[in-house]
């Protein structure tokens, strides 16, 4: 078995789940005619704990609910766009209504399946799922964090959706002075602006942080790894120290991470200027690899850095 830090995020999740399943025969993994090396390894080693349900996402959710009622700990592994958009009613009624501890591992969030186009892009999942009752949304930004979250997930007795990357991302846990709170962590510390991101875009936020230093702007970077329910108490204390907050997401702006952060600011009457950066409604139907799409959608590092600088310098005093 490879070290966790050398794995893709999805492989770290399945690899950790395999460890847990070896010790707990009630863990069941269901997939929909979907393959990856780690998934194939799980199926080969624990065939009695793996179900290939075929391309039947709505049925998978209902079957998972039934198995959960029989005291099985069920995990679903599927492309994120398919297992959310096709199954909203089943997730709401079969899982959330009864608060069943079924975990959905949604692979390829955001533009993770860039060249496969809008059918495979998952750019609305936070908006759609965060409004449902009793559901936890997890969003790891590296393999080590993903592995830790899948272990802690065992204690959550209600539905969980894990936003999962396909590729390999740098491990952030080894950065200097990382401060971890329940549901989020601070990766960089600066006094001028706070950038809040999740998943893949945390890495973009760190790039922006480095670029802003050339303008003598010091940025804090917060990695939200549990989107809902969110640790509002601690987050509110931290962001109240900033005049400028930037939210960054590979997701539509309406109902996304930026909306959640803005609600916290408004509800707590915080005097903070907020700029949300993400996808607009007319920008979700596109093809191309992730970097090309980011350039088209103005989510590349250079554009975002300049936009933050121009926004802040209207009232920024270095």
Write the layout of secondary structure elements.
Layout lengths: L8 H15 L3 E5 L5 H9 L4 E3 L4 H13 L3 E7 H6 L2 H9 L6 E5 L17 H5 L6 E3 L4 H10 L7 E5 L14 E3 L2 E5 L4 E5 L2 H13 L6 E6 L1 E3 L3 H8 L4 E9 L4 H11 L5 E7 L10 H7 L4 H12 L6
Parallel strand pairs: 1-2, 1-3, 3-4, 4-6, 5-6, 9-10, 9-12, 12-13
Antiparallel strand pairs: 5-11, 7-8, 8-10
Structural class: alpha/beta
Q: What integer value in Å does the Rg equal?
A: 19 Å
The overall pLDDT average reads 94
Order of strands side by side in the largest beta sheet?
2-1-3-4-6-5-11
Instruction: Indicate the CATH class of the largest domain.
Output: Alpha Beta
- Beta-strand content: 15-25%
**Topology, number of strands:** 13
Low-pLDDT stretches are: none
Shape: globular
Give the oligomer, counting copies of the same chain as homo and different chains as hetero. Answer: single chain
Describe the structure.
It is built from twelve helices and 13 strands. It is of the alpha/beta class. It folds into two domains: 4-164, 3-Layer(aba) Sandwich (Rossmann fold); 179-312, Rossmann fold, CATH 3.40.50. β9 (193-197), α8 and β10 (219-224) form a beta-alpha-beta unit. It is globular and about 60 Å long. The model has no long low-confidence stretch (mean pLDDT 94).
Keywords:
alpha/beta, globular, Rossmann fold, 318 residues, six-stranded mixed β-sheet
Put the structure in a nutshell:
With 318 residues, this protein is α/β, with parallel strands linked by helices.
């Amino acid at each position: 078995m490879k070290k966790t830090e050398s794995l893709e995020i999805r492989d770290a999740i399945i690899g950790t789940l395999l460890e847990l399943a070896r010790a707990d025969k009630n863990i069941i993994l269901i997939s929909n005619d979907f393959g990856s090396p780690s998934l194939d390894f799980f199926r080969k080693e624990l065939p009695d704990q793996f179900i290939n349900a075929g391309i039947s996402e709505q049925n998978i959710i209902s079957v998972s609910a039934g198995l959960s009622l029989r005291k099985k700990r069920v995990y679903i592994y599927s492309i994120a766009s398919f297992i959310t958009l096709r199954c909203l009613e089943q997730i709401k009624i079969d899982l959330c209504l009864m608060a069943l501890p079924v975990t959905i591992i949604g692979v390829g969030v955001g533009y993770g399946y860039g060249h496969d186009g809008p059918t495979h892009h998952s750019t609305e999942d936070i908006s759609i799922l965060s409004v449902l009752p009793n559901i936890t949304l997890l969003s790891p930004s590296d393999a080590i964090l993903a592995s830790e979250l899948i272990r802690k997930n065992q204690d959550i007795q209600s539905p969980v959706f894990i936003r999962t990357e396909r590729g390999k991302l740098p491990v952030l846990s080894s950065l200097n002075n990382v401060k971890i709170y329940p549901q989020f962590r601070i990766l960089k510390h600066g006094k001028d602006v706070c950038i809040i991101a999740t998943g893949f875009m945390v890495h973009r936020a760190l790039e922006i942080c480095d670029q802003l230093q050339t303008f003598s702007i010091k940025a804090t970077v917060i990695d939200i790894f549990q989107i809902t329910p969110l640790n509002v108490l601690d987050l509110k204390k931290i962001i109240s120290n900033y005049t400028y907050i930037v939210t960054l997401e590979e997701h539509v702006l309406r109902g996304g991470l930026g909306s959640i952060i803005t609600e916290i600011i408004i509800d707590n009457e915080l005097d903070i200027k907020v700029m949300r950066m993400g996808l607009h409604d007319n920008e979700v139907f596109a093809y191309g690899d992730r970097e090309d799409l980011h350039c088209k959608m103005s989510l590349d590092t250079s554009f975002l850095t300049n936009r933050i600088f121009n926004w802040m310098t209207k009232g920024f005093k270095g």
